[in-house]
Fold:
Amino acid sequence: MDSLHEHTSVYDETTPVLIVGGSLVGLSLSIFLSWHGVPSLLVERHAGISPHPRAFNFNMRTMEFFRSVGVEEAIRRQAPADFQRSSIVRAENLAGRELHSITQDTTSSEISPLSGCIIGQDALEPVLRARAEELGGDLRFFTELVSFAQESEGVRAVIRDRASGTERTVRARYLVAADGNRSSIRQQLGTKTYGPGILGHQLSILFAADVQAALRGRRLAVCFILNPSVRPGTSLVFARNGQGFALFAPFYPDQGEREEDFAGERGIEMIRAAIGLPDLPIEILNVSSWSPAAWAAATFQQENIFLVGDAAHVMPPAGAFGANTGIADAYNLAWKLARALQGQAGPALLPSYTVERQPVVRYTVEQSFAMFTRFNGVPTDKPTVPILDYDAIAFGYRYHSDVVLEDDKDDAWCEDPHHPSGRPGTRAPHVIVTRNNEQLSTIDLLGRNFVLFVGAAGETWCRAAGDVARRMDLPLDMYHIGERGDLVDRGRRFLDAYGVREDGAVLIRPDGFIGWRAKTASPTPACALEQALSRLLGRLPQH
Structure:
C-alpha cells in the first residue's frame, strides 16, 4: 500500500488496539485487553455468529483463561450438561456396531482446579460477545477493514460499515489480525507460512432429525463413520446445544462439487447413510465447506501488527488444538500490549510474543498433524513426529525468551504437567491452598498483575517486594505460603511443585507463566526482585 504520512493524516477516531475479526479469538482478545484496562475497537465483516459448531472442545487451560476474566460460569451455563462426559466413537454407522469408544473426561484433575468444557463455537461466541460488551469493548459487526498502513508510531486503517457504506479512518497504536486462515492482513504483510498446508476439503452440513433411536441412550460428542456407503473420514458431531447436528464429510470442489449440491436429496442421503436409518426424516439447515490444513506463520508480528489464531496458524481438527491455541495466543499478547500501552514495557516485551508463541505453535501443529494422519488414516509423504500425551501438549508447553529468566539450560519445548518442575517458562502449577479456612487454587490468584509467591521462611522477600513495587510503580500481588502466611499449604505440595525451598520466591507473569524464581533466600532481595521484574517487562537485555 502507499505510504501514509502522519502529519497530513486526518483521523475520524483513535483506539489503542484495533482487532480485525470477531470470532472466538478476536472476542477473547477484546475481553483480555479490557481486563487489563485497555480499550479496543473490534471490527467483524459478518453481521453475526456462524451457525456451524466448528470448535467445540475447550480444554482446562482455556477455561482457566476464561475464569480469570470472569466469564467461565456464563460459558458453563450455556454448555449442554449431557456432553460434559460424552464419548467419541468409531462405528459402522450411528445405529450400528461400535468399533471403538473414548469417553472424554472433562472433570478437573491434579493439574487444574477446573474441568474442560464441551460447547459448540456457535453457542460460545455469543457468551464471549456479551462479556466483551459488558467490559466496554467497542464491537462493530458487519464492518470490514478496507485498508491499513504502518506509521511511525502506529497503524492507520480505513474501516467500512457494510450496511451504510460509510468509511472511517482509524488511528490505532496496534493492529491485531484475528481475521482467520485466509487473513488478508497476513497476505498483505507478505508473511510466509511453513507446514504441510491444505490437507483436503470438508463439507459441513447442519441438519435437524430425531436420532434418539440411533443414539440408544448414549451421550456422544462425535461419531466417526466407517463403512463403504459413506466417504472415508465422515463424522457426525452432536455438540450443538440442541440446535440440530452436523455431518462432516470430505468434499471435492476440484471434481466439480459445489456446496449447494448437498442442500437437498444428495445431502440427505449422506446423512441417512451415516446414521444408518434409511427412511429417517431429515431437514437440512445449512451447508458450508472448509479446508483442514496444517501450517504456521514464520512470524506473528511485523512492527505494530500482530497475528493471532487462524491468521497465525491452522491445525487439523485432531486433538482440538486450533481454537485453544488461538485463545492462548490472545492471552499471551494481551498483557504485553497492555504493559506497552501503559508505559511499563521495555523494547524486548512485544517481540517476545512471537519468540514464545511461534515455537509452541509449530510443535502443536506437528502434533495435531501426526494425530490427524494416524487417526483418519490419511496417507502423507510428510514425516510425522511421535505423538505426546495430550496434557503435555495442552499444559506442559514452555516459553523461552528474553522475558523469562531461565535457571537451567534445558531447551525442551514441553514437560509433564503431572510432575511440574516450577522452572521459569512453564505454567504456574495448580496447588490447593487454604485462606481463612477456605480452599482455593494458586491458579485463582493469577491473571491481571504480576504475582510473587514466597515460602514459609520468605519474610525478607515480602518486605522487599513492597518497596520494589512502590519504586517501580508496578502492581504486584504478594502471597506468603506457609503455616503462618496468607495461604496455608496443608498438602505440602507448593515447594515441590514450584521447585523452591522455604526461603525461596517465585515471580509469575500476568499470563500465569513463571518468569523467575529464587530457589533460596538472597542477600539482596530488593535488587534481585527489581532486576527480575525489569527483565520480565522487557527492560533489560538477556545476560
Summary: Residues 6-79+119-196+294-390 form a domain with the FAD/NAD(P)-binding domain fold (CATH 3.50.50.60). The chain has two domains: 6-79+119-196+294-390, 396-536. Residues 1-8 have pLDDT under 50 and may be disordered.
